[in-house]
Design goal:
single chain; five-stranded mixed sheet; 9 helices
């Protein structure tokens, strides 16, 4: 029998996205997977509708929005002592190829000492364009660029690749590894928690693998649209807050020695550019959230 896989899908006020994702996953050719849906404090009845319309292994309803990290942790905690071989985090704004899961399991089963694996992720809006083909980490600047982002897919990323980090958009890992590294750090709420998790995995000596035989499609920015209405550009003030704060969390947690020079210089330049831009464009909310992100990023206890 194929290994037993639990797929966690998080919903927050996004009935159409989540329902479409579930329908896509249900077309998988893999015969031993179980879907866990977590409704993360939705206030639009989307969770109730999804639970009524889709037969899933487990439906969990949170009273409040616990973020990507906290919402997934509720499911991970539920699964931690269950009889599963692997667990997957899958964004609700994705569509998957029918063989994506069988390919990923094939990939992880063919490796030794593998901590986690991810598929090739293409844009759903243009399926010839790459959204994520693994990730690099540049410690001097504490930067984590996405491999292949925005490039036309002409087969240049069709070889398996030992990656520095894996996107939380779709990550498959042995449940035994989750037990070793612990749950996602809920202080991140959303953004950079996957980078933090990836570092914890590799710190224990495991490898991370990008596996292009498996393919999914991402509706980029789908989740960000739900952070609340605002009139200050495409990225919400709260998303900018999380970006600034959580990147500072990464710098504080993983940057040491001479690398601090580059990381602090980059962070200072980035924040200055944002501040001046928001000042010129009179985006008051984003200026406030930017400053709050700096304060919380520097003062929050992350030990």
């Amino acid at each position: 029998m194929n290994p037993r896989v639990a797929i966690i899908i998080l919903n927050w006020n996004a009935y159409q996205l989540t329902s479409t994702c579930l329908n896509s996953v249900k077309r998988c050719d893999y015969d031993n997977y179980f879907i866990v849906v977590v409704d993360n404090g939705s206030d639009d009845d989307s969770g109730t509708r999804i639970n009524a319309e889709h037969k899933v292994f487990k439906y969990i309803e949170n009273n409040t929005n616990l973020g990507f990290a906290g919402g997934n942790n509720v499911a991970l905690q539920y699964l931690i002592d269950k009889d599963f071989d692997y667990v997957m985090l899958l964004n609700n704004d994705t569509l998957v190829e029918p063989d994506f899961l069988s390919r990923l399991v094939e990939g992880v089963e063919s490796q030794t000492n593998l901590g986690a694996i991810q598929p090739k992720i293409l844009l759903n809006s243009d399926r010839k364009v790459i959204w994520n083909a693994g990730g690099y980490y540049w410690p001097f600047f504490a930067l984590s660029p996405t491999r292949g982002l925005g490039k036309k897919d002409v087969g240049q990323y069709n070889e398996a690749f030992k990656t520095d980090w894996i996107s939380g958009c779709c990550i498959l890992l042995p449940l035994s590894v989750v037990k070793e590294i612990g749950l996602l750090d809920e202080r991140f709420f959303a953004y950079y928690e996957d980078l933090d998790w990836s570092f914890k995995i590799t710190k224990l000596g495991y490898k991370l693998l990008y596996y292009p035989e498996a393919v999914i499609y991402h509706e980029a920015g789908g989740s960000d649209k739900n952070w609340g209405l605002h009139d200050e550009g495409n990225v919400s003030p709260f998303s900018r807050y999380l970006d600034i704060r959580n990147h500072l969390f990464i710098v504080r947690r993983y940057t040491r020695g001479l690398n601090l020079i580059g990381a602090v210089s980059y962070q200072s330049a980035k924040i200055l550019v944002y501040f001046v831009y928001y000042l010129v464009r009179r985006r008051t909310k984003k200026m406030i959230f930017l400053l709050k992100g700096i304060k919380d990023g520097l003062l929050t206890n992350i030990d």
